Amino acid sequence: MDNKPKPAAARPQQRGAARNESKDQHRINTQIRAREVRLVGDNVEQGVYSIQEALRMADELELDLIEISPNAEPPVCKILDYQKYLYQQKKRQKEQKAKAAKVVVKEIRFGPQTDDHDYNFKLKHAMEFLKEGAKVKAYVFFKGRSILFKEQGEVLLLRFVNDLEEYGKAENMPVLEGKRMIIMITPKKK
Fold first, then answer.
1. pTM
2. Residue 106: which of 89, 88, 84, 124 has the closest Cα?
3. Which CATH class is domain 105-187?
4. What's the confidence (pLDDT) of residue 100?
């Protein structure tokens, strides 16, 4: 076997770099390789045209022929200003990102023998969190020998979920993970 490094031309192109370029790039004007294209859009009569005819129409309007859907048969194209098209796509992606639900999880920690005053204080905070639309992760932390009071921790969490019934509901029953007994509460839809 020959262990000499390959010349740059013989090396395969890096996948990540090629993918980034093709993600943003659309074929425009003379880069479109199909013989026929389907034109769609507001400023043209929709239908299947030869590539020469479509390029001529785009040239008359002083706009670009942009390949929107290259995998269709024949490829779907629009006649638009290419820079404006890219701007609109970025704007649309930004809006979708803003609309995406951001889930906030707030944690509330109890000890197995939490007294009523502390319990009510934490309950009030949990109500506020659920009203704001955040999930609440309530857990009882067992320190040292307090693991003997697993039943008390479970009763405490079930009471907590029951008191928050009008604001949210439990995703599951309390689960013991190591030294913590955890329960997740999701806010009710308005």
1. 0.47
2. 124
3. alpha beta
4. 74
